[in-house]
Design a protein that fits this description.
Arc Repressor Mutant, subunit A, two-stranded antiparallel sheet, 150 residues, 8 helices, mainly alpha
């Protein structure tokens, strides 16, 4: 099965157009697979990304610092953080050094959610199980190379 069959299109303007369409289609495909896994914890992939950023930072971050580290730079970080606050997965406090900023940190509930999702890492990795380790590394390197030009 190729992109031609997936989107029912036989011809492309160029190999580069085909690649672009394939990347967009594949991104949406993998996002849906991840969404299905995260459904058990009732969080989105953007919320999952923020929780992982906060856990990894080991210190509170401003929403601007979170946005800089996010995979999806177009996300409305403040809105997503507010939803995580309502779910009691993160906590917000006024920054002690700059009262205009808010520090966001992961709560124990947030750490518990990530711990449960960590148990699904094999399932997450399994999304790409059709690729060998060598192929996965090669594809990752090619994607890095693709972005070097930008």
């Amino acid at each position: 099965m190729g992109i031609e069959k997936d989107i029912q299109q036989e011809h492309f303007r160029s190999v580069y157009q085909k690649l672009t369409i394939n990347l967009i289609f594949s991104n949406n495909w993998i996002t849906e697979k991840i969404k299905d896994i995260l459904l058990s914890e009732d969080i989105t992939h953007q919320q999952y990304n923020i929780l992982r950023i906060l856990r990894g930072s080991k210190k509170p971050l401003s929403t601007l610092q979170i946005r800089e580290r996010m995979l999806d730079k177009m996300s409305d970080t403040s809105r997503i953080v507010e939803r995580l606050v309502k779910k009691e997965l993160v906590e917000k406090k006024v920054c002690s050094t700059d009262k205009r900023l808010v520090d966001v940190s992961i709560s124990q509930n947030g750490l518990d959610v990530l711990k449960r999702l960590d148990e699904k890492n094999a399932e997450l990795d399994g999304i790409l199980q059709n690729l060998s380790l060598k192929e996965a590394e090669q594809l990752s390197d090619l994607l890095d190379k693709m972005r070097e030009r930008i």
